[in-house]
Structure formats: structure tokens, C-alpha cells
Amino acid sequence: MVYAIVKAGGRQEKVSVGDVVVVDQLTGQVGDSVELEPVMLVDGDKVTTGSEDLGKVTVTAEIVRAEKGPKISIIKSKNKTGYRKRMGHRSKLTRLKVTGIK
After folding, report:
1. Which GO cellular component terms, listed alphabetically, does the Swiss-Prot or TrEMBL entry include (predicted)?
2. How many separate domains does the chain show?
3. Spatial separation of the C-alpha atoms in residues 101 and 90, rounded to whole Å
């Protein structure tokens, strides 16, 4: 089984061909092809981690859609002063489908 560990959106993800992963927002339109930076490649028993060998490896993915993460509630308050502040946040994400590891 061939799989790769790629750096995408500040995190590392384990991907193989056909996998769908969700990463931090990437620029591009739906259907665009994106190249991900490999950190490690496993091809059966052979493991590739050297930077000169990984320079020859390309991991391509296709943008499926843009998404938003779960809502995070942020509440600040101070005791005895009546200070209350409420905020929310939803991170922007991109869903990718891995199309090839070469």
C-alpha cells in the first residue's frame, strides 16, 4: 500500500490515492488541482524521508469544496463588574480529494 504524509494547512495528514481530507483554507476554485508538500512516503516496505528523494515525489489533490468548521463560542466575563463579552468563530476549511502520488 502506498501512502504519504503531507504538510497541508499547518498540519500533517496521512493520505493515499482516493482519500478525502479536510485542511485549512487553500486558495483556488472548486475542481482546481493542488500540489501538496510530502514529508514522508511509504511504498510497501520502502520508506522515503530524505529531502533530495522527496523532491522527486509529487502529491496532487483536487479541491472538492470550501467548508466552515464547527462554531466555537468565546465568552469573557469579569466578576462583580458586569462585564460580559460573547464572540463566536468558525474556521474556513477546504475539502480535498487526493488524485495521485508519483
Report:
1. cytoplasm; ribonucleoprotein complex; ribosome
2. 1
3. 31
**Maximum Cα interatomic distance, the chain, rounded to a whole number of Å:** 64
Query: Quick count: other Cβ atoms within 10 Å of Cβ 98?
Result: 22
Cα separation, 10 vs 14, in Å, equals 14
* pLDDT tens-digit readout, 29-60: 999 999 999 999 999 889 999 999 999 999 99
Which residues 6+ apart lie within 8 Å of 3 measured at CB? 14, 15, 16, 41, 42, 101
- Give the per-residue pLDDT at 10: 86
Domain that holds residue 28: 2-101
